[in-house]
Amino acid sequence: MANLDRRRINFVKRLPIDVRAQVLYLFLKEGISNRKTEQLIDALNEEDGWQAWSVIHFYGFNSKSKARFPTLTLKRIKDSLLNVNVEELEEFHLANSEEKELSSKIVFTENDGKDVFRTIKGRQGQYKLRKALVQNYRSKCGLCRINDPKLLITSHIKTWSTSSANERIDTTNAILLCKLHDALFEYGYISFTDNYEVLYSLDYDFEGQGIAKDITFTKPVRDFPSSVFLREHRLKHGFE
Length: 240
Ligand SMILES: [Zn+2]
Description:
Number of helices: 11
Structural class: mainly alpha
Distance between the termini: 41 Å
Order of helices and strands: HHHHHHHHEHEHEEH
Bound molecules: zinc ion
Strand order of the largest sheet: 1-2
Radius of gyration: 21 Å
Strand content: 5-15%
Helix content: 40-55%
């Protein structure tokens, strides 16, 4: 998502919901350009030429979303907008840009486009999940000392694609890990016992890759990884 500053956010928030819905409709369904939309809607007349763009980006869309939702109706957009938590979106846009950047890069493989607003909610959910994990794991990889936000990611225990909507944002179904440990965990080269001891796959040459095998798990402040998800991970990757 592009950066929206406080001024643009306030502009969007001041617009009546009907106007916001109309902007999204013209863009997402009809593929009308921002400039054209600004000419069509009186409420968008003032400002600096970024009015329609601000609405579109506020709700998490970008140039790739143009004319991508041919079956959308104005009513459906409006109903959806009434269910979007504006304060949460505002917080998302004003958040630390690194955190935001990372959560906005999350790729949605399922149901993409089926329900446009699922994407917004999904992104918001992932942002909140990451934020909670960063707090729970004290901004550090659960398995090493890495604390550079750019190297830390939300590692789902049960994979994103097989998780339900609730499981995807469940703090006990995710661990804050650095990119290396996330990859080792995702490929099943490492796993965990219910007591959070690290298990190492016999099929992987840790030594050859220069990867330490004496790592210990630093437990989170709260929301420990669930034993149900951990067991699933062990079963999936042949640890039991
Ligand atoms: Zn690590």
